[in-house]
């Protein structure tokens, strides 16, 4: 049955009084009798602001009209990826339609308000920033989210105060001309060392990513003298850490649209801006799980590596492919540790080694606070997607390629509270240390024997 979904729900306003806020979807979907929906309402004063709706459907008959109805999908990020029994997290414009509650009740569709004031949650993360002064590295607060300006100032300070372990450099410029900074972390002991690449902030709205990259550097430097595991890693490996991959989008998420995902490049034919920086890589580019439409959040771009940010990182990794043995990309949210393939249902040649590394990593992560992460091939654990950085890294000779989806599983979504930065980063730190430590050991490939001519880097 096709229905138009719309609602008006009474929720607390930003100014403490209770008002009736119009929440809106107007989505044409095929609704089974056991369709359920949970809603997160917002108190934006901007009429074009978005509300978050959570919905689960017992079949996959939600059509592509989802995309045509100005629905911003959070999880999954494309209507084509909605699967049987899956939970779907979306944002919708609040001024589109009215009467959702009546429609839902008529169709026996349950829903629940989760967060009554989304704007307040956003202000918790962005408010009071203008009063903060530049602080020394020892005074830097790693338990709040930081703007790009603050992060880059911190990078310069880290580089200045730890010259024996840190080197800072730029690998290029973004679409809007901003430098793409990377920190190299490692003791200068010899010319050749294996390396680990870690990038954060590929998707602008995933603020916990840059927070983790900063946390990793801080923990590595502060524990170098007393943590024998970290000291061994720093002495024997190089870490290339890119705290903010999508610098233009990250700034835009701070200044204009908190839930912006893509880069900020312009399109000649459409008013819509940006490309999904995790669909723009030259590996099964623009196939399943990616969109060719510039207005979609999973837009793959006009051609592979069309985005300067992607091109710069790809160029750097190609140049250092003989050294980089692990690629780690930090995303949010879902509480997962993913490895190739994303673009197809198939087993990678060194499955046993990668599976073992993933198992050990999530076990180490669990030991911190008992938080469970799912792990496995991205295509079966999350969804199929093409043109991803993880698949590209693996295809280009990096044997251990992973993508983390950090906390949580959906209650806060992209608005993970600052109070959860510490535990999220602490547990993820254990996982990344475990993956990195594995590079210093020899892995037996077991039943999946590798072609040594094709995979000499293992």
TrEMBL record:
Keywords: Carboxypeptidase, Disulfide bond, Hydrolase, Metal-binding, Metalloprotease, Protease, Signal, Zinc
GO terms classed as biological process: proteolysis
Lineage: Eukaryota, Metazoa, Chordata, Craniata, Vertebrata
Gene3D superfamilies, per the entry: Metallocarboxypeptidase-like, Zn peptidases
Similarity section: Belongs to the peptidase M14 family.
Domain of life: Eukaryota
Domain Peptidase M14 residue range list: 144-439
Gene field: CPA6
Cofactor: Zn(2+)
InterPro entries, A to Z: CARBOXYPEPT_ZN_1 (IPR057246), CARBOXYPEPT_ZN_2 (IPR057247), M14A-like_propep (IPR036990), M14A_act_pep (IPR003146), Peptidase_M14 (IPR000834)
Signal sequence range: 1-16
Cellular component aspect of the GO annotation: extracellular space
Enzyme active site: 405 (proton donor/acceptor)
Protein name from the UniProt record: Peptidase M14 domain-containing protein
GO MF annotation list: metallocarboxypeptidase activity; zinc ion binding
């Amino acid at each position: 049955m096709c229905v138009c979904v719309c609602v008006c729900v009474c929720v607390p306003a930003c100014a403490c009084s209770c008002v009736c806020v119009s929440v809106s979807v107007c989505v044409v979907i095929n609704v089974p009798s056991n369709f359920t929906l949970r809603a997160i309402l917002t108190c934006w004063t901007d009429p074009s602001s978005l509300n978050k709706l959570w919905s689960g459907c017992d079949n996959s008959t939600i059509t592509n009209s989802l995309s045509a109805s100005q629905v911003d999908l959070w999880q999954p990020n494309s209507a084509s990826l909605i699967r049987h029994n899956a939970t779907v997290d979306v944002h919708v414009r609040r001024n589109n339609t009215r009467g959702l509650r009546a429609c839902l009740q008529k169709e026996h569709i349950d829903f629940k308000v989760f967060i009554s004031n989304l704007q307040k949650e956003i202000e918790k993360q962005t408010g009071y920033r203008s009063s903060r002064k530049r602080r020394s590295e020892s005074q830097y607060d790693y338990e709040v989210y930081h703007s790009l300006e603050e992060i880059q100032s911190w990078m310069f300070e880290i580089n200045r105060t730890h010259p024996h372990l840190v080197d800072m450099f730029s690998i290029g410029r973004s679409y809007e001309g901003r430098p793409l900074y990377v920190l190299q972390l490692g003791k200068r002991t010899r010319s050749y060392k294996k390396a680990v690449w870690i990038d954060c902030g590929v998707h602008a709205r995933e603020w916990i990513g840059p927070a983790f990259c900063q946390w990793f550097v801080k923990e590595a430097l502060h524990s170098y003298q007393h943590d024998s595991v970290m000291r061994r890693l720093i002495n024997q490996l190089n870490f290339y850490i890119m705290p903010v991959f999508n610098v233009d989008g990250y700034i835009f998420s701070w200044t204009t649209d908190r839930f912006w995902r893509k880069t900020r490049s312009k399109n000649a034919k459409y008013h819509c801006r940006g490309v999904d920086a995790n669909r723009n890589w030259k590996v099964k580019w623009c196939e399943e799980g990616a969109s060719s439409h510039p207005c979609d959040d999973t837009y793959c771009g006009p051609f592979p590596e069309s985005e300067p940010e992607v091109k710069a990182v790809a160029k750097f990794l190609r140049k250092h492919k003989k050294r980089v043995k692990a690629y780690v990309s930090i995303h949010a949210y879902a509480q997962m540790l993913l490895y190739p393939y994303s673009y197809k249902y198939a087993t990678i040649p060194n499955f046993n080694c990668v599976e073992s590394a993933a198992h050990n990593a999530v076990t180490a992560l669990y030991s911190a606070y008992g938080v469970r992460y799912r792990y496995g091939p991205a295509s079966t654990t999350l969804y199929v997607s093409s043109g991803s950085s993880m698949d590209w890294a693996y295809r280009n000779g990096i044997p251990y390629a992973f993508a983390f989806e950090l906390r949580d599983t959906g209650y806060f979504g992209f608005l993970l509270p600052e109070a959860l930065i510490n535990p999220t980063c602490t547990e993820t730190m254990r996982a990344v240390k475990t993956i990195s430590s594995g590079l210093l050991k020899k892995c037996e490939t077991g039943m999946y024997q590798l072609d040594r001519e094709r995979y000499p880097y293992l």
